[in-house]
Write the structure tokens for this entry.
Amino acid sequence: MATHTEQLTRVAVQLRGLTRSFDGRTVLDGIDLDIPAGQFVALLGHSGSGKSTLLRAVAGLDHEVVGSGRLTAPERVSVVFQDSRLLPWRRVLDNVLLGTDGEERGREALAEVGLEGRERAWPNELSGGEAQRAALARSLVREPELLLADEPFGALDALTRIKMHALLRELWKRHQPSVLLVTHDVDEAIVLADRVLVLEEGRIGLDLTIDRPHPRSYRDPLLGEYRERLLAALGVTEDHA
Ligand SMILES: Nc1ncnc2c1ncn2[C@@H]1O[C@H](COP(=O)(O)OP(=O)(O)OP(=O)(O)O)[C@@H](O)[C@H]1O
Ligand SMILES: [Mg+2]
């Protein structure tokens, strides 16, 4: 098995001049980006800055992203959204297994996210946090090389969100996919990611490596410096006076 360092030398995602416009309005304006295999990247940006557009393009969900750009992504990609998108008429285990076989692996994935024993539950019997756990299990069962997540914890309460952060980081460590996590939460980005990007006027305006050990404390004063740089890049100052 490759060591983590060896793995990081392989590139999982490569974007060159990626451009996307809607009705003549340019949202992504020639984005260049390399994500090494196994790297955990967070993507910040104002509402409407094009985060979801970028993620959809990398996921291969945008069939109109053509023209000037070039995009390389791994074959096995999983996507997690803000709502779990579980099919209400299928039990939890069947949702996790959707389109795959190997019931045992599905059960394992559910156990990994703390949903052991809930295999036969219906999606509407799960809390919001549990449904997102099931969505994570569904993404894991495919052993993705790349995990794309678009504000996966955006609809959860603060406490559940903190637990989900620890869970996601643990799953990442065990499975080692590259991760591209879209979030509007600066603290979520710096606590989870090894690298934080800020999308700004269709480009990567800031590319920041977060060089702090894990698990990270939300109160680590050194993280405060990263927070300030990111907030500044987002045009937010903490001084509301
Ligand atoms: N299918 C589409 N047709 C037309 N315009 C679109 C389409 N998809 C996205 N846009 C526009 O592109 C811009 C970027 O949208 P996008 O959803 O990528 O933003 P975002 O950064 O994810 O925002 P948020 O933080 O609110 O989720 C917006 O102005 C949006 O209206
Ligand atoms: Mg979005």
User: Anything to note?
Assistant: The two ends are 54 Å apart (CA to CA). Helices lie at 4-8, 51-59, 92-97, 103-112, 128-140, 158-175, 186-192, 221-233. The pocket of magnesium ion (ligand 2) is lined by residues 51-52, 150 (CB under 6 Å).
